[in-house]
Design goal:
single chain, seven-stranded mixed sheet
């Protein structure tokens, strides 16, 4: 069986914050009627990502696709080993933000989710338009609660992190290191252990083991976890490692095959997570009118830009918003006419 080594991968997933293999850009053009033009760009991609990528988009779902070939410096130096990479542009028009959400914010656990929101408000002299794109957090664990691990201070720190590549203070660097340790060594490690623990319970039920073995498992759960982590957190399958360590009599090799079937969902969720170990994001939104408020990293006219580090949306959603407005000139004209008419009426009623 192929070794999973989930714990090592995740505990040392600090590469999430230092790698720079693939670049992803998400561009949104917002129209006054609430329709959206989406462009998603994958740089340094390969042909497999045309139909299979972590956004879950392809030609089959109505996206237009443009391809450009890019050759790296390594390829230029080694002409005999040309490994061409692609820039893949996916483009699609959505009639509303709800239509966009149906595709990019589905319930699937193995796609990168982008949730849109659009609000339009009339305020006599001005019409206001609020739009946001939110990256939904990457956490796909089911048996642990973030509230048991992360504090308000942790969330506040994540909120104030600057754009990718921006310098932070020494104190913030130290806090970030502690947060990474808590995230991977505590939260994700425990979360994956709980997933595998529940897989083992399912295996035991599948093979009708006596109830006393479930009691043994529950009794030794914490010591097994501590021992497993002390040994480096590596196993071909964590559930079967636990079973072997407690001499739980699962029928082998049938249990190995059943584990492979039961663990498919967990594998797919963790494979999804691994996509972001070397990915950098850029996001931009083009508003239809002048911008009056936003949390963008930079603004150029009605064009807003973000470069969020993965930390921003690792354990919580990250909202990128903008508000713009336009003057209702007809309302100004009507108001002036009302003032003039009112003045004329008062003038006529004034005694001569």
């Amino acid at each position: 069986m192929k070794a999973l080594k989930y714990f090592i991968v995740l505990i040392w997933a600090i590469c999430l914050f230092t790698g720079c293999e693939q670049k992803v850009s998400v561009e949104t053009v917002v129209h006054p009627d609430g329709s959206l033009d989406r462009t998603i760009i994958l740089e340094k991609a390969d042909t497999s990502q045309i139909d299979r990528n972590f956004f879950g988009i392809s030609r089959k779902s109505g996206w237009e696709i443009e391809l450009d070939t890019v050759r790296s410096q390594e390829d230029s130096m080694k002409a005999t080993k040309k490994r061409k990479k692609l820039i893949i542009r996916f483009k699609k028009h959505f009639s509303s933000y709800q239509e966009s959400n149906k595709e990019l914010n589905s319930k699937a656990d193995t796609i990168f989710k982008v949730r849109a929101n659009f609000e339009k408000r009339f305020r006599w002299f001005y019409t206001y338009l609020y739009y946001s794109d939110s990256y939904i957090d990457l956490d796909r664990l089911e048996y642990v609660s973030q509230d048991d691990y992360f504090t308000r201070e942790d969330h506040a720190f994540i909120d104030r992190l600057p754009a990718e590549g921006k310098e932070i203070s020494k104190a913030d660097k130290l806090f970030l290191e502690k947060l990474q340790e808590k995230t991977f060594e505590d939260y994700f490690s425990r979360g994956i252990f709980e997933e595998e623990y529940n897989l083992l319970l399912a295996l035991m039920r599948m093979h009708d083991l006596e109830p006393r073995w479930a009691d043994t498992l529950r009794k030794h759960k914490e010591p097994v976890y501590s021992n497993f982590m002390n040994q480096g957190g590596v196993a071909d399958s964590i559930a079967l490692y636990i079973a072997d360590s407690l001499s739980i009599p699962l029928p082998r090799p049938q249990a190995d095959n059943d584990y492979g079937v039961l663990s498919k969902d967990l594998r797919s969720r963790l494979d999804f997570f691994s996509n972001f170990s070397n990915t950098r994001f850029k996001h931009n939104i083009k508003m239809p009118w002048p911008v009056i408020r936003s949390n963008a990293d930079s603004v150029s006219g009605s064009h807003l830009f973000w470069q969020p580090p993965v930390t921003k949306f690792l354990i919580k959603d990250y909202e990128m918003y903008a508000e713009s407005r336009k003057m209702n000139y007809w309302a100004v004209v009507v108001s002036v006419m009302i003032i003039i008419l009112t003045a004329l009426l008062f003038a006529k009623k004034r005694p001569t």
